[in-house]
Amino acid sequence: MKEIIEPFRIKVVEPIGFTDQAERERILGEAHYNPFLIPADKILIDLLTDSGTSAMSAAQWGAVMVGDESYAGSRSFFRFEKVVRDITGLKHVIPVHQGRAAERLLFGLIGGVGRHVPNNNHFDTTRANVEFSGATADDLVVDEAKDFDSDYPFKGNLDPNKLRAYIRTNAARSIPVIMLTVTNNAGGGQPASMANIREVSEIARENAIPFFLDACRFAENAYFIKLREPGYEHKSAKEIAQEMFSHADGATMSLKKDGFGNIGGFLALNADVLAEKARNLLILTEGFPTYGGLAGRDLEALATGLEEVLDERYLEYRLACSRYLADHLTEIGIHVVQPPGGHAVYVDAKRFYPQIDSLQFPAQRLVAEIYSKGGVRAAEIGTVMFGKKDQTTGADIPSDKELVRLALPRRVYTQAHINYLIEIFAEVFAEREAARGLRIVQESPMLRHFTAHFKPIT
Q1: Count of structural domains within the chain
Q2: Residue of 88, 48, 144, 124 lying closest to 379 (CA atoms)
Q3: Which residues are 442's β-sheet partners?
C-alpha cells in the first residue's frame, strides 16, 4: 500500500510558540496545572480539542468574502440551509454559534425535573445541559466499549437491550429524546454502526420517543461504516451520512468539528411545533433565525466545509493520522483505546500511572507532564471531567475511566509534529514511576475541568 499523504498543499502558515522546560514548568504552575488556563502562545502542539481549531480551505476563505451580512433573510443562510438539508434530510435548520447552544435550546425546551435522557455516552456539555434543565443524563453504551484493548469495530453503539430496559424502568413519557453521539467522543472517538442507528431508531419509534443524533463527527462515523460494516463498502461517505440521518428525527451539531469551522453549529429537526419554540428561544438568546449568532461569512464557510468534509481522500487521511499515532504509542508500551478513533487518540492514564489513585487524577497529571516535557496540550477525560459528587458528603466519586485525549485538529499538523509528540510520550513514559497525583484546590459546580485549580501531592 502506498503512503497515505495529506490531500492538500499548505498555502498559509502560522508560527507556533517554542519554550524551554524551565519556562513551561513556571507556566504550568501559574496555570494551576490546568491546560485550559495556559495561554495559547505558550503551546507548541495544541491537542486540547479538535473543536474550532481546523484550518479552513482556500474555498472556505473565498466563501467568507461573499458572505451576506443582512440581518434577516441572508442569502448565506439559505445556502447553509440547503447544504444541511441535503445531508440530513431534516426539515427545520436552526443555526447557532456552537453545539452547546443547540443543546441549550433543545434541553431548555424538552428537559426538566423527572425527565430522563439516554445516550451511548453524553459528552461534557451535553450532559451539563441535560442536567442543568433538571433532567437525568444516562449512558447506555455497549459493554464492549469498556474493554479498551478489544478490536470490536463499533464501540460507540448504544446497547439496545439496555435501552429497552431503560424505557421499561422510566416509562416512555418521561423520556423526551433518545440521543446517539457519533462518533462517541467520551468513549474514545468510537463509531456507531448503521445497524445500531437503525435499531435504536426503531425502538424510539415503537415507543413514540424522538431520536436525535449528536452529529459533531458524522462524516468520520460515516467513513468508519464504509470501512467496517458489510454492505457499505461501495457506498459514498455522503450516501452513508444521508442514511444515518434518515433514521433520526433531529440532530444537534457543533460545526467546529466536521464542519471545518472555527465557530458555528445547528439544531435541525422535523417537528414543527418544537422548531417554532426553538426559533422563539433562539431570538431571545442567539439572534434572528436566519443568522443564529453567526455572521453571514461564517454561514458561507460552514456550508463549504460541510461539502468538503465528505471528501473520501480527506477522510482516509484523517483516520490514517490517528491510526499512525496510536500504533506508535502502542509500540512504546503505552495503552491506548483500540481501535483508534477518527478525531483523537485516547491514552489510558490509569495504566500509564497505576500508582496514582483515580481521586488523585492520573489523567490530569499526564496532561501536565506532556506539557512540561514538550509543550504539548491535551485534555483529561476522566474523574476531573466526568467524576460525580456524593450528595451527602460532597466527596468525589471517580469516573470509570481515566483517559487523556489527544485531539487532532483538522488539516493543521504534519507527520513531523506527530513524530515529535511520540518522542515526548516516550520520555514521559520512561519517567512514569516517579509521578505523583494532584488535588483540586478550587472548582466550579459544573464543567469544572475548564477552570479548576490543582496542586501536586507531595
Answers
A1: 2
A2: 48
A3: 453
CATH number of the domain that residue 349 is part of: 3.90.1150.10
Read off the pLDDT of residues 203-246 as tens digits, 9 standing for 90 and up: 999 999 999 999 999 999 999 999 999 999 999 999 999 999 99
Determine the pLDDT at residue 1: 56
Report the C-alpha gap between 329 and 68 in whole angstroms: 46
Residue 267 shares a structural domain with residue 125: yes
Domain of residue 382 covers 21-50+311-456
Residue with cell 443568522: 291
Return the closest-CA partner of residue 440 out of 2, 34, 110.
Answer: 34
Strand pairing class (116-119; 136-139): parallel
**What pLDDT, on the 0 to 100 scale, is given for residue 393?**
85
Q: Tell me the mean pLDDT in the region 256-263.
A: 96
The answer to whether residues 292 and 298 touch, using CB atoms and an 8 Å cutoff, is no
Task: State residue 392's pLDDT score.
Answer: 83
CB neighbour class for 458 (10 Å; exposed up to 12, middle 13-18, buried from 19): exposed
